[in-house]
Write a structure and sequence with these properties.
The complex is a heterodimer of chains A (308) and B (434).
Chain A: H1 16-34, E1 38-41, H2 46-59, E2 68-72, H3 78-91, E3 95-99, H4 100-105, H5 122-131, E4 136-138, E5 155-158, E6 186-189, H6 197-207, E7 218-225, E8 228-230, E9 244-251, E10 262-264, H7 270-279, H8 284-288, H9 298-305
Parallel strand pairs in A: 1-2, 1-4, 2-3, 4-6
Antiparallel strand pairs in A: 5-6, 7-8, 7-9, 9-10
Helix pairs in contact in A: 1-2, 6-7
Chain B: E1 20-27, H1 34-44, H2 50-62, H3 78-83, E2 90-95, E3 99-105, H4 112-121, E4 125-131, H5 138-149, E5 154-160, H6 169-185, E6 190-195, H7 219-225, E7 238-245, E8 257-261, E9 266-268, E10 272-276, E11 280-289, E12 292-294, E13 296-298, E14 302-307, E15 318-321, E16 327-338, E17 349-354, E18 357-371, E19 376-379, E20 389-402, H8 409-412, E21 413-418, E22 424-430
Parallel strand pairs in B: 1-3, 1-4, 4-5, 5-6
Antiparallel strand pairs in B: 2-3, 7-8, 7-15, 8-14, 9-13, 10-11, 10-15, 11-12, 11-14, 16-20, 16-22, 17-18, 17-21, 18-19, 18-20, 21-22
Helix pairs in contact in B: 4-5
C-alpha cells in the first residue's frame, strides 16, 4: 500500500441538487423493480424533460425500460412537438400519444366554451392507462407548485377510476415506498416531489439539458387575456377586442396554448432564467396557468378526477 | 386570531448555487401557533410569492380579518375541510443563502402519533412547539418522545407566544429546563430551546430586541447551523440492491450492475462485501456513479456496483461490509407504530417490507406497549391499534438482514403491509442485539 499521507479526504456531503438527483434516481429504480408496466408522462415541458434525463441516468448503460406517453391536447406549440420528437429519438424511448383531438372528433369529448383543453386530458389519459394496463405512471408534479400538491405522496395510489382519494393515501415512511395495489388500480409516481422550480432550472443548467426554445426569451405575437399573454392560434384566440402585439416573452410552463401564458422576459439563457425565477414574485402556475385560476380548488378537483 | 403582523425583515435569500438540504419536521399541539410559525418562516424567508400572499389576503378578508392570516398558507384541501379530516403531512419548501429546507408539516391533533412518526421518519431535526403560557404539556412530551424513538438527532423547542408572557426570561428558562431534561432522558443529545413569537416575528428569522437576555440563535439561524447528516465513514456499508442492470448490448455485452442507493456508510472499489441474506462474500470490482466511474460512493448516493464474482444477486438482497454486516434472521423483533385503522394482532398474516425486500410474515406476539410520556415499555399482549406504539415479534417466510434501528436507521426500518389491500399497516423499527 502506498497511500499518500497528504491525500485530502473528500468531504462526503451532497449538494441539494445531488441529494435530489439521488432521490429521484432511487424512485425510478424502485418503480422498475416493483411494477410490471410503468410509463412516463412526457409533454416536452421542462419537468418531464428532467424526468426523462433522470431515467436515462438511473438505468445507464441499459436502455430506459419504459415508454413515454404524451397526452396531446391538439393545442400545441409547434416548437414543443418538434422538441418532443427529437427527445424521444435521442433518448431511445417509445412514444405513445393519447389525443384529445381524436376524442373530440369522435364525439367522446366536447370542446369547452372557453376553448381550454387542459381539463379534457383526463379521459384520454385514463383510457391510455387502462388500455395499456399501465400500473405505474411517472408524473413531473412538484409539491412546491400548488397547495393541493403539497400533500401529494411520491407514490400516489389511484383507484380503478383513476381517482385520488385523500383518505386512502398511505403514510410515506422513510424511503420505503409502498407501491402495492390491486388489479385495475395504478400508482402515480412523482420523482420530482421535493424539487422546486429553481432546483429544476439549476439542474437543467448543470446537466446541460436542452429544452424547447419557448422557455427562453423570443419575439412573438401575443395578446392579453385575463392578465396573461397568450399566443394566437387555431384554438380560438384572439377575439376581436383583443389586439395582437409583438413582444419579447418566454414561457415558464408548457401546456395547452389556450391557457398557458407567456411572461414578458428577456432571459435568453439558462443562467438568466435562473436569476429571473429566483427573484420572481409570482408562482410558476399563478403567472402562467389560466386553468388554475378558475377556482381556488381547481387543481384539487382535477387531481381527484384523475388528472396528472 | 393568528393574523400576522408585518415585520421589517431585510433578509433576502439567494436561493441559487450549491447548498445543503435539511429535512425537518414540525409538531405542536392544537392552538400553539404552528401554522403561524410555519407561515412566518415561509413569509420571512421570502418564500411566499405575491400571488399566493394575495390569495391568503383575500381569504383572510373573507373571514373578516384585518391582516393576512399566515396560517392559511398551510391550510388544507377542500376535501379535508369538508370531510373534517387531515392528511398526515404537508411538505413546504424554502431556501436561504446556505440551505434548502424540506419541512414536513404534521398536524398536531387526533392522529398525531402517526403523523409525527411519518414526518420524523425522514427528518434530521424535529421542531416542537409550546405555548409559553402553557409550558410543557403531555403532547409536548409525546412529540419529543416520538422524535426520539425515530432517532431524530436534533430537537428544537420553539417557546412560542412569548409576547403573551411579556418576554419574561424566567418563564422561558423554566420551560427550557424542563424540556431539555425530559429530552436528554430520552437519549437525544442535541436540544435547543428558542424564545419566540411567530405572530410578531421575534427570533424566527429576525433577532428580537425584546429578548435582550437571550443570546442563542434565532430559529432560522439554528436551522442553518444544525449539521446535515452524519459522517458516512463512521458507519458500515449497507447497500440494498434495487435493480439489476443487464444492457445485453454489443457495447456492454457482459455488463452486470447492481443499482441501488447507499443506505449507510462508504463503499470503495476493492472492498470486501457480503451479500445478505445468502452470506456469500465477494469484492467490489467497480462503482458506476450517475456521471461515470467512481473510486468510492457514500450514503445517500445512488450508484451501480459491479462485483468481482459471478454471484447470484437480485432485488431485495443487501450488500454489506464483510467485517460488519447486518443480522440475517427469520425472526424479527421491533417497535411498531400502527398507522392504519386495521389493528396489528398476534396471528395476523402480513407482508414485511425491509429495504428493497418484501417477504410474507406472521405476527407472532405483541409483547409490550410504549408509554409515550415516559418511553417505558409496559407489558401488553392485546392488538395494537391506530397510533399505538408497541413491541412485536414477527416470523418471516424468508430471512431478512436487518440492523438495530437505533444504530442504522435506513436498514433498521421496516413496514408491515396488508397482504390483501396493500395498505401500510405499521412503521417498524427493528430491535437487534439489544
Amino acid at each position: 500500500m502506498t497511500e499518500s499521507l497528504t491525500a485530502v479526504r473528500p468531504a462526503r456531503r451532497l449538494s441539494q441538487l445531488d441529494a435530489l438527483e439521488s432521490e429521484a434516481v432511487h424512485i425510478f429504480r424502485e418503480v422498475a423493480g416493483e411494477f410490471e408496466r410503468p410509463v412516463l408522462l412526457f409533454s416536452g415541458g421542462k419537468d418531464s424533460v428532467v424526468m426523462l434525463h433522470l431515467a436515462a441516468k438511473a438505468f445507464a448503460p441499459a436502455a430506459i425500460p419504459l415508454p413515454v406517453l404524451h397526452v396531446d391536447t391538439g393545442h400545441n406549440f409547434p416548437e414543443v412537438i418538434d422538441y418532443r420528437d427529437e427527445a424521444v429519438e435521442r433518448y431511445g424511448v417509445r412514444l405513445l400519444v393519447a389525443s384529445v383531438q381524436d376524442y373530440i372528433d369522435s364525439g367522446r369529448l366536447k370542446e369547452r366554451p372557453d376553448g381550454t383543453r387542459n381539463p379534457l386530458q383526463t379521459v384520454p389519459l385514463l383510457d391510455a392507462i387502462e388500455g395499456n394496463r399501465f400500473d405505474a405512471v411517472f408524473g413531473g408534479g412538484r409539491r412546491d407548485e400548488e397547495k393541493a400538491r403539497a400533500k401529494e405522496r411520491v407514490f400516489s395510489l389511484r383507484d380503478e377510476f383513476g381517482q385520488w382519494d385523500p383518505r386512502r393515501q398511505r403514510p410515506e415512511l422513510w424511503d420505503l415506498y409502498n407501491g402495492r395495489h390491486r388489479p385495475g388500480e395504478h400508482v402515480r409516481v412523482f420523482p420530482l416531489s421535493n424539487w422546486t422550480e429553481v432546483d429544476v432550472w439549476e439542474y437543467v443548467a448543470r446537466e446541460g439539458i436542452e429544452l424547447p426554445s419557448i422557455y427562453y426569451a423570443h419575439e412573438r405575437d401575443v395578446f392579453l387575456r385575463d392578465g396573461m399573454w397568450l399566443t394566437p392560434g387555431d384554438w380560438g384566440g384572439p377575439k376581436d377586442d383583443e389586439p395582437v402585439e409583438r413582444r419579447v416573452v418566454r414561457y415558464r410552463t408548457v401546456g395547452d396554448m389556450s391557457c398557458t401564458g407567456a411572461v414578458v422576459s428577456t432571459a435568453s439563457t439558462v443562467s438568466e432564467v435562473i436569476a429571473e425565477v429566483a427573484v420572481s414574485t409570482l408562482t410558476e402556475r399563478g403567472a402562467t396557468r389560466a386553468d388554475d385560476r378558475l377556482t381556488e380548488a381547481a387543481m384539487e378537483d382535477r387531481k381527484r378526477e384523475g388528472y396528472f | 386570531m393568528t393574523a400576522i403582523q408585518d415585520t421589517d425583515v431585510t433578509l433576502v435569500p439567494d436561493q441559487t448555487g450549491p447548498h445543503e438540504l435539511l429535512r425537518f419536521a414540525t409538531a405542536g399541539s392544537v392552538d400553539d401557533g404552528k401554522s403561524t410559525l410555519v407561515g412566518r418562516l415561509l413569509h420571512d424567508t421570502k418564500s411566499v410569492l405575491a400571488d399566493t400572499l394575495a390569495a391568503v389576503e383575500r381569504a383572510s378578508r373573507a373571514k373578516g380579518l384585518e391582516a393576512a392570516d399566515l396560517a392559511l398558507l398551510t391550510d388544507g384541501l377542500r376535501a379535508e375541510r369538508e370531510q373534517g379530516i387531515t392528511i398526515d403531512v404537508a411538505y413546504r419548501y424554502f431556501s436561504t443563502a446556505s440551505r434548502s429546507f424540506v419541512l414536513a408539516d404534521t398536524p398536531g391533533h387526533v392522529e398525531y402519533t402517526r403523523n409525527m412518526v411519518t414526518g420524523a421518519s425522514t427528518a434530521e431535526l424535529a421542531l416542537v412547539l409550546v405555548d409559553a403560557r402553557n409550558g410543557v404539556v403531555e403532547q409536548t412530551r409525546r412529540h419529543a418522545a416520538a422524535a426520539a424513538l425515530l432517532v431524530v438527532r436534533h430537537i428544537a423547542l420553539a417557546v412560542n407566544k412569548m409576547d403573551l408572557v411579556g418576554f419574561d426570561r424566567a418563564v422561558f428558562e423554566s420551560i427550557r429546563d424542563e424540556f431539555v431534561s425530559a429530552v436528554r432522558s430520552l437519549g437525544v443529545e442535541d436540544v435547543v430551546a428558542i424564545p419566540l413569537s411567530a405572530l410578531q416575528g421575534d427570533n424566527v428569522v429576525a433577532r428580537s430586541e425584546r429578548t435582550p437576555w437571550y443570546d442563542g440563535p434565532t430559529l432560522l439561524e439554528h436551522l442553518e447551523a444544525v449539521p446535515v447528516g452524519g459522517d458516512p465513514a463512521l458507519e458500515p456499508l449497507r447497500f440494498p440492491v434495487q435493480y439489476v442492470l443487464r444492457p445485453q448490448t454489443d457495447e456492454h455485452h457482459d455488463y452486470r450492475g447492481y443499482a441501488g442507493r447507499v443506505a449507510h456508510g462508504v463503499v470503495r472499489v476493492g472492498d470486501r462485501v457480503v451479500v445478505q441474506p445468502s452470506g456469500r462474500t465477494t469484492t467490489v470490482a467497480a462503482i458506476d456513479g450517475l456521471d461515470g466511474p467512481l473510486d468510492e460512493a457514500f450514503a445517500p448516493q445512488s450508484v451501480t456496483l459491479r462485483l468481482a464474482d459471478d454471484v447470484d444477486i437480485a432485488r431485495g438482497d443487501l450488500v454489506a461490509a464483510a467485517d460488519d454486516s447486518a443480522t440475517a434472521s427469520q425472526d424479527l423483533v421491533g417497535d411498531v407504530c400502527v398507522v392504519s385503522e386495521r389493528p396489528v394482532a398476534p396471528g395476523d398474516r402480513v407482508l414485511v417490507r425491509h429495504g428493497t425486500r418484501t417477504v410474507r410474515a406472521r405476527v407472532q406476539s405483541v409483547t409490550a406497549r410504549l408509554d409515550l410520556e415516559t418511553l417505558e415499555h409496559l407489558p401488553y399482549s392485546d392488538p395494537l391499534r391506530l397510533n399505538d406504539i408497541g413491541t412485536i415479534t414477527v416470523r418471516l417466510a424468508e430471512p431478512v438482514a436487518a440492523d438495530d434501528y437505533g444504530r442504522l436507521r435506513r436498514t433498521g426500518a421496516f413496514l408491515l403491509v396488508d397482504d390483501q389491500e396493500g395498505s401500510t399497516l405499521a412503521a417498524g423499527m427493528a430491535v437487534v442485539g439489544r
